[in-house]
Amino acid sequence: MKVVQRKVCLLGDFAVGKTSLVRRFVDNRFDDKYLSSIGVKVSRKTLNRSDHTLNLLIWDLVGGNEFSRREIGYLVGAAGALLVCDLTRLETVDAVAQYAHQLRTINPQAALVFIGNKVDLVDERVITDEQLLAVADTWKGSCLLTSAKTGEQVETAFMQLAHKVGEIFHDNAAT
To answer: Residue 120: its pLDDT value, please?
Structure first.
């Protein structure tokens, strides 16, 4: 059976929940103690498919003002990304559009899945479904609402991205 490896990135401002989403997907755990990412942390998740094994290399990148030219270099080779906003902080939805632009400048074919995280914080939510969908539509990506804390839709988000970057494998294999 063929083994395919794909690099995917988690992009978004600081404290939107990128690291928590990775931890929930890879280790099925949640820690509410905030630890800011420094630079990049790479995790791996192996997914068995009917005709191949997909190794996802998940690059959790620092966000916010720390995202500099060096971090933009981390986007090279990325087949796709989860672009994460915090549903309780309006400015983070604008930021995901900037991250999408940066990634698509480097890789115009990158698969994009936009994530509205912290859907469990219902009373604090300020970003609407329509606002997130508008950004996703602009970049021809899909979108989902997740909660790293409860696990809601986290696996679905990663699996959707895995499916999209897996299609790249099938498209390349056909040519």
So the answer is: 97
